[in-house]
Queue: 4 jobs
Job 1
Amino acid sequence: MDPRQKDNKINIELSEEHAEGIYSNLAVITHSNTEFIIDFIKMMPGMPKAKVKSRIVLTPQHAKRLMKALHENISKYESIHGSIKEIDERVPLNLGGPTAQA
């Protein structure tokens, strides 16, 4: 192995808490001239409120790398599992769940 390659390795730890992951069915992206902010949100059917479950702040360069990595991984996924069906771009406020009644 080239000694330079050894120096480029990163040891990444994943705690049990983070390994479980956080479910999100909505992402809101905002940006300034120095950073991109992605809020991952969990909306529940029929609920008028939603909570931000996680916020990630990225530099513009890292945001672009993330976009490229997502594109590459989606392409790999679709080559194995077929095209991902896209749904209507608009997110219904109730996510298709029953309407709450008093």
Job 2
Amino acid sequence: MENKGFWSWFLQRVTALLLVIGMAVHFFTFHFSPSRYSSRYYDEIVNRFCSPGWITFHICLLSLVIFHGLNGLWGILIDFNLDKGITLRFRQILWFIGMVLFGAGVYILIWFATEHSGIPA
């Protein structure tokens, strides 16, 4: 039995489940609140978003999104059975894209939190 792509397949399913849970938590916490019609709702959301726990949650959610998306692209490429050199180069490109996206996302999350929480940058 060949299990060459087992971990890629397995992690795609695990990240899909975690993304559904994580997006539901994010949606109901940040977009559906009983006080969403009050004038203080924006301040309440910004204060909640800037807490270290929620920043950590969103960094984890970001990593899941990036991994799930790029792993899906990798799975599509593998189905084409291309030359080994091409797949190696494509893997390197996906890793680079993933690192750039993750770095940019973390930078934006931390920038937003420091900009809106009164902490000097």
Job 3
Amino acid sequence: MRRRRIPRKLYRIGEIVDYSGVSRQTIHNYTIMGLIRECDWTRGGHRLYDEEVFDRLDSIAGFKAQHKTLGFIQEFFAKQDAEAGG
């Protein structure tokens, strides 16, 4: 018997806020800056994010705790994404 494909879990901004403690505005700003990326959109036009967003938010918090600027963090992720082919 062939198993049906199970869809990946995607999160709305409200869920990310609830689970991460990061504000809705911060999620929006990080998306605009390219620090995090939406993976899909709902039919109503809402952004959806995959589980990677939580790793990214943890990394951003770690960099901020080290007093790194958002510009530094943006460059770090841009380089990391380019090396990964994304």
Job 4
Amino acid sequence: MISVEQYLALSAVMFVIGVVGVLVRRNAIIVFMSIELMLNSVNLTLVAFSAYLGDVTGQMLVFFVMTVAAAEAAVGLAIIIALYRIRQTVNIDDINILKW
């Protein structure tokens, strides 16, 4: 049987990989995927504690987080596609559409 500590260790590793992806990479799609990885690591933590405590509150909260993540994915990809059509790149350093 897998212990809660192992779930938390996996979640921490996933979150750190996501943070490194956001801070290091300059591709908007990779950054977007890293943010999704961080959200999934938080979901894993919530489910692990929910199962450990025998309470379904964490599992219900995961459904709300997944709903927000799905909406964020749809809006984020639409923004990335729109920026690609304007600038012909998804490199974050080259996208300076808000600068004067």
